[in-house]
Amino acid sequence: MMQAYRWARFALLCVGIFSFAQHQLQAAPKAATVLPQTIKSYVSIPDYDQASSNFDETQIGKMMADPVMKPFTDDLKEQIKQKLIAGGVKLGITLDDLQGVYAGEICFANDQPNGAKSDGVVVTIDVTGKKAQVDALLAKISQNQKQKGATESKVTIAGVQATKFDLPPNAEKPGPSEAYYAIQQDLLIATDSKATLTYILEAIAAAKQDNLASLEAFKAVLARAEEGRGPETYDFEWFVEPFGYAEVIRSQQGGRKKRGTDMLQLLRNQGFDAVKGLGGYVNFMVSDDDDQLEMVHSSFVYAPQDPQAEAGERFKLGARILNFPNDKNYQPYDWVPGEIATFLNFRWNVQDAFKFSETIVNEYADDEIFDELIESLEKDPAGPKVDVVNQIVKHLDDKVCMLVDVKTPITPQSEQRLVAVHLLDAAPVKAAITQIMEQDPNAEKHPVGEEEIWEIHEEEEEIPTLVISGPGFPDAFAANNQFTQGGNKPKIPNAAVAVVGDWVYFANNKELIKKVILTKQAGADAKLLSQAADYARMDKALAALGSGEDSFRHFARTDQAARVTYELMQQGKMPESESALGKVINELWSMGQDDETITREQEIDASKLPPFAQVEGYLGPTGSYGRTEDDGWYVSGAMLKK
């Protein structure tokens, strides 16, 4: 609940954010032109009525409006309300109270007003022609704040009168303890940072050259995303500066608490801060043609040449692993089963990635262990005596893919994941892996026809991970909590490996490798993903969005991909989930726990969710493609009607 009070105050600042927007009558300043460059995340909605209407016409919108979902959505609203109350703030107003307050753009953002260890939130709303409604709203906010013990005062900031509330102190809850409201040039501003409000008011009075709109990364990201956007209008515009945003999250949690390696600093040291920003546009676009496009996004990750990189390199140190060459051929391989949940096909210079991971490993260990480890695998009398570089690494191609399958009935272990790497020469790799497995007392061999799978029954060990979810939405980007806190590392589960044909497969369950092998062995009788109608539809849709020579393609059957999370929520077992999505959700909900190594309690009561069979018909396939460019990666994709 550490975050609840902080976000409750944020909710109080952005009252109206769930019922925004009418067409602009007269343009108030566009938010990006008056926000400072210390903004680390930004979402702008130019016309909420349009965005809301478009969303309602999508399959997800229709699902949320389905009567079978109403008991859950009503209950969820009440749960959120109670969460805010538990956090120390009760709004005391309904959405109906907010109707008619807004007239144009709504923007909300996270700020870093006073350096890396600070955080703030700011909401701006175009209220052109809505003075009476805004006055009534602010009066109600004032009444509610005072009922909660806040002290109201009038202050003058940058020559403009503003309302300040000093909120009751709470030693257990981090974050600012004051809130400011002001109206200037038809722009309603709500923030918990005096520095941010000062900047905005000064920028309204006289244009500033150091605003968010003039930030190099902001301009580059949105300019490139706009090129691929398609329609002139859009429903959301967003931008995130990833390292600054991670620092904001850390500050919101009260600062870094864990000892050990600071992963955020490690990534900076290793050159990953060459990624200066990411963002783009989202359209809840409903198409009447055969493609039936909806929820289309156009995004860009801006990572220009690092001036500290060595000659001939784009990035420095460990960041050099970010080498994803483009390719034209993305047809699913003849061993990819037709019935899987997701398929990610990408190109990655794996050999370089292995080489350039040396500085990452050494900094994480705080010792020069990388070369010693590789040498010990070859020369240690008790080791496998395998020359990893020459017997394995130098035979790895840049074709890589990932598959996800779902095993029923649903349990926390239902999501089966497989990574496959194409081999330039399979024989030495297979020989090396066999040699390693035969000497491992925890390895067990399983024959599948003439092929074999090695299953490793490992004792639990701690390993570091980085989870990035997305792309297309600002809050879809999530760093694994250890990157903001430095602790609670995941465990290695049982694993499986096999070399079949010219591919090496790694999986968290031997059954998925077996499924792949049997698909390959079925030959002409195999049911392949490349033959699936929904995959063909998505391939056509991505081509319409500009796919061609790309660095990755992604396809997902949302009904299958979401089922694990959905049913685990129903069972009250979401905190135990081992799915990729489940882990991200659990990390986000665990942020701020006193002991993050303890499995959290499920905080959302999903007992009123209808059976999954009643909603899966709304969940169509999704897909995206990415392309490596000179100064970053362009990403676009969509969801289709089922």
Task: Tell the overall outline.
Answer: globular
Estimated helix fraction: 25-40%
Whole-angstrom Rg:
26 Å
Quickly count the helices. 20
How far from one another are the termini?
A: 38 Å
Mean pLDDT across all amino acids = 82
Main sheet properties:
20 strands, antiparallel
Unreliable residue stretches: 1-26, 83-95, 460-492, 588-598
SSE-based structural type: alpha+beta
Number of strands: 20
Please state roughly what percent of the residues sit in beta strands, choosing from under 5%, 5-15%, 15-25%, 25-35%, 35-45% or over 45%. 15-25%
Descriptive overview:
It is a single chain. 32% of the residues lie in helices and 22% in strands. By secondary structure, the chain is α+β, with helices and mostly antiparallel strands. It is built from 20 helices and 20 strands. α1 crosses α5 (70-86). The protein has helices at 2-13, 31-34, 48-56, 59-65, 70-86, 131-147, 194-205, 216-227, 242-252, 263-269, 350-356, 358-365, 370-379, 388-391, 426-438, 482-485, 510-521, 533-544, 558-571, 580-590; strands at 39-45, 106-111, 120-126, 151-157, 160-166, 178-184, 187-191, 236-240, 277-283, 293-302, 342-347, 396-406, 415-423, 443-448, 451-456, 495-500, 503-507, 552-557, 621-629, 632-640. The chain has a 20-stranded antiparallel sheet, with helices on both faces.
What is the compact description of this entry?
With 642 residues, this protein is of the alpha+beta class.
